[in-house]
Amino acid sequence: MAAAAAVAEPKTKYDRQLRIWGDQGQAALEKASICLLNCGPTGTEALKNLVLGGIGSVTVVDGSKVEQADLGNNFLLDEGCLGQSRAKSICSFLQELNDAVKAKYVEESPATMIDTNPSFFSQFTVVIATQLPESSLLKLDSICRSANIVLVAARSYGLTGLVRVSIKEHCVIESKPDHFLDDLRLHKPWTELKQFAKSIDICDKDAVVHKHTPYIVILVRLAEKWADAHDGQLPSTRQEKREFKDLIRAHMLNVDEDNYKEAVESSYKVSVTPGISDDIRQIIDDSSSEVNLSSSDFWVLVAALKEFIANEGNGELPLEGTIPDMTSLTEYYVSLQKIYQAKAESDCLAMEHRVKSILKRIGRDPESISRAYIKTFCKNTRKLRVCRYRSMEEEFSTPVLSEVQKYFADEDSCFAMNFYILLRAVDRLAANYSRLPGIFDSTGFTSEIDEDVPRLKLAAVAVLTEMGLNGASLSEDLITEVCRFAGAEIHPVAAFIGGMASQEVIKLVTKQFVPLMGTFIFNGIDLKSQVLAL
User: Fold this and answer.
1) By C-alpha distance, which of 127, 155, 113 is closest to 59?
2) Structure confidence at residue 1 as a pLDDT band (50, 70, 90)
3) 25 CB contacts (<8 Å, ≥6 apart)?
4) pLDDT by residue (tens digit) across 376-420?
5) DSSP percent split of the chain into helix, strand, coil, nearest 5
6) Does the predicted TM-score (pTM) go above 0.85?
7) In terms of CB atoms within 10 Å, which end of the chain has fewer, N or C?
8) How many Cβ atoms from other residues are within 10 Å of residue 408's Cβ?
9) Which of 384, 305, 377, 321 has the alpha carbon at shortest distance from 184?
């Protein structure tokens, strides 16, 4: 009883999120080790979300003590923490949120850790770097990419903020797009599906049977009838598709037959272009699909997929094996389910044989890739994604000029681009003056905004010039506004940016959904956001 309760407890605790990313996703989270650099409000918000989600372990690196200012924007700190280690205090409170998560801390400046102990970061699954200046971020990115560690950079600054993912390559099997066409193969039905469709008389005068014939059967039968009358071709032009819909309507006995309405609405599925989409073809033809001993499981499966398409698949991907809800007699629907599931199982079995053959050929254990992983891959072959990121050094020194110019030409994107340039310029100014624009200087007097505005503008022009944007101009009002931000981490902005960062970490750890493919910029003035692919 005690053992059963121990197993059930995490399922109950994480019930809602398990419905999104399933047992495999949750298992990946619980194995992950996260390092957070700087536990200000942005970092704390990100870590709070991950701890509540059941991340395996967290390590906080922060060398500062809790000050009075921290109490105003960091909800995990109270007056009892004043003067104590900020990293220690944050870890203590995080542990209260979820005692199943292991929380450790290192009282060290992140910049010092990056400079003196780069090997420290190789032990983690993901490093979340918050509020780091550009110089430290560039060094950290190089360290993480060398060790193949995922880096997520996040920064909140006044009413703006950014999130950026950096890793050489990230492969996604379960991309879970919002809208995707059902994999019904109505354009190319296999033998068992054809036989089942032929076993049902779509001209049956029995009103109950006629109005409960699944639309899949209706479309298979009428598509075959159409092809017989059109030299084996399915409807392709707009006029032909209209005529095919009329053919479906002509078989209705009554106007209230929902199954025929579903058939009309789904008639376009008969005209789906056969074969492989350009996106999947690009993955299959990628040089990484030429596998060797060091290839990842993902690319071994892609290599097997390439072989499957050329052989058992007859030019098609493995069938997913699921069908949508539809108006149907229960016995018809169950029979259809079994036909689709049997075909999917057959395709998966063929893939499994090819995976084992490839593993043996490259010198790996043929059983090293589980059947569950292969099955998940087969169910999602139409939705595979490979994300490759430029290094931050490449982005900063050689941005894609055509994209940058496009962003500056668009009104909404231009505002985001302004923030992107100014956040980089802020670091330049801070490096020269040992302070951020608009904050108290070392003698306790506030710096004059009027003095900082031209300084920040000069730094921004230098960034623009380095990016190859000579002559580009920035908003004078925005330059002044960024100076007025004075480097503040405002809690609502920090909570949003931290939430975005934690969301990306979950995508990267679970390898589900597609992570940000660029730098996410939040514009808190107009409450807009933009992803800049630079």
Assistant:
1) 127
2) very low
3) 18, 510, 512
4) 999 999 999 999 999 999 999 889 988 998 999 888 899 999 999
5) 55, 10, 35
6) yes
7) N
8) 18
9) 321
What is the C-alpha separation between 222 and 236, in angstroms, rounded? 15
Show the 3-state SS of 65-109: ECCHHHHHHCCCCCHHHCCCEHHHHHHHHHHHHCCCCEEEEECCC
Give the orientation angle of helix 215-229 with respect to helix 191-198, to 10 degrees. 100
Contacts of 365 (CB under 8 A, 6+ apart): 359
Residue 35, both tokens: 């390092």
Contacts of 410 (CB under 8 A, 6+ apart): none
As a whole number, mean pLDDT of residues 225-245 equals 94
Res 451: pLDDT: 87
Q: Span 470-475, mean pLDDT?
A: 82
| Gap between the Cα atoms of 489 and 351, Å rounded | 51
Interval 159-164 mean pLDDT: 98
Longest Cα–Cα distance of the chain, Å, equals: 94
Measured distance CA(339)–CA(236) in Å, rounded: 27
Sequence length of the chain is: 534
64 pLDDT above the threshold of 70: yes
Helix (H) or strand (E) holding 193: helix 191-198
Give me the helices (H) in 328-386, please.
330-361, 371-379
SS3 163: strand
Query: Residue 387: left if φ>0, alpha if ψ -120 to 50, beta else—which one?
Result: beta
> Is the Cβ–Cβ distance between 305 and 284 less than 8 Å?
yes
Q: Which residues contact 77 (CB under 8 A, 6 or more apart)?
A: 66, 70, 71, 86, 89, 90, 93
